């Protein structure tokens, strides 16, 4: 990223990044509300994350500018850009959590359907007990993987709520001990 020297260049760069983030967040909102799983989500998520980091760097450069003797107007402008960054970051993580919850819900429903189908097949004599046990083992493995993914996501957000993350991390250890 090119390091602008003047306050106006920093301000223009911040506005440009905020505009790009608004466009991408709008697309991401539509994807999250419309679908559970889409290949474009990962590209869009990484793009938004990259833009958020760039905006954070620009805000840091603006902070350095203000610290070196900026006026009250410049300080107010910086505060507004920092608030915008915070709002966009919070919305992104809220949408990301919502998408993960939708994926998890869909996966649980699929596991329930498979479990129910296995029970029906067993009752009707459609599959052997060995096949039923293999399906159940696969279902348990998927559930354990989901718990692992969820706990890793929680731990990656430690700054958000350390107590909750620690409790979840501890319960994850116990879950795998029981399993």
TrEMBL record:
Major subcellular site: Golgi
Superkingdom of origin organism: Eukaryota
Topology versus the membrane: Single-pass type IV membrane protein
Annotated keywords: Golgi apparatus, Membrane, Protein transport, Transmembrane, Transmembrane helix, Transport
Annotated compartments: Golgi apparatus membrane
One GO cellular component term: cis-Golgi network
Range of residues in the leader sequence: none
InterPro entries reported in the protein's UniProt record: Golgi_SNAP_su1
GO biological process terms on file: endoplasmic reticulum to Golgi vesicle-mediated transport; protein transport
Family in the record: Belongs to the GOSR1 family.
Protein's recorded name: Golgi SNAP receptor complex member 1
Organism: Nelumbo nucifera
Organism classification: Eukaryota, Viridiplantae, Streptophyta, Embryophyta, Tracheophyta
């Amino acid at each position: 990223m090119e390091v602008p020297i003047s306050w106006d260049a920093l301000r223009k760069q911040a506005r440009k990044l905020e505009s790009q983030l608004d466009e991408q967040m709008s697309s991401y909102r539509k994807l999250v509300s419309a679908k559970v799983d889409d290949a474009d989500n990962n590209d869009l998520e990484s793009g938004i994350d990259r833009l958020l980091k760039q905006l954070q760097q620009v805000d840091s450069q603006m902070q350095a500018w203000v610290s070196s003797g900026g006026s009250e107007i410049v300080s107010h402008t910086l505060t507004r850009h920092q608030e915008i960054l915070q709002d966009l970051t919070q919305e992104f993580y809220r949408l990301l959590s919502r998408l993960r919850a939708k994926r998890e819900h869909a996966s649980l429903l699929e596991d329930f359907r498979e479990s129910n189908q296995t029970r029906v097949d067993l009752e009707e004599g459609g599959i052997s007990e060995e096949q039923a046990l293999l399906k159940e083992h696969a279902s348990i493995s998927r559930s354990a993987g989901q718990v692992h993914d969820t706990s890793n996501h929680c731990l990656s957000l430690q700054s958000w709520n350390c107590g909750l993350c620690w409790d979840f991390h501890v319960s994850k250890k116990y879950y795998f001990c029981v399993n």
